[in-house]
Amino acid sequence: MKLSKVIKKYGSWAVTEYGIEHVGQPEYFIEKEVVHNSQGLGRTWKHHMAEKRWVNQGDFNAAHDYAMQLWPRAGQESTKG
Questions:
Q1: d(C-alpha 40, C-alpha 7), whole Å
Q2: What is the pLDDT of residues 3-50, one digit of tens each?
Q3: Which residues contact 59 (CB under 8 A, 6 or more apart)?
């Protein structure tokens, strides 16, 4: 799968026009519409991704933090421009 247009790259993760995408293998992506979603029981995407051995957690956390600011929840304004 080809990456969508990259907005900002954080090591092995990129914030793209689509959402958050892993650069390389395995292919993994999170649509921008769901970056704020929890995984149930108060678990965030950061908790979910921390369980995956192949994830560079620092890269993912940085990309996720940026994406959360770029695509705020409904009713909030973006702090990125």
A1: 29
A2: 789 999 999 999 999 999 999 899 999 999 999 887 666 788 999 999
A3: 10, 11, 12, 13
Q: What is the pTM of this model?
A: 0.83
SS3 content of the chain, % helix, strand, coil (to 5): 30, 20, 50
What are the sequence ranges of the domains in the chain?
6-70
Q: Do 36 and 45 form a contact (C-beta atoms < 8 A)?
A: no
Residues pairing with 29 in the sheet = 21
Length of the chain: 81
Q: With CA atoms as reference, report the closest residue to 67 among 43, 27, 35.
A: 35
Amino acid 13 reads W
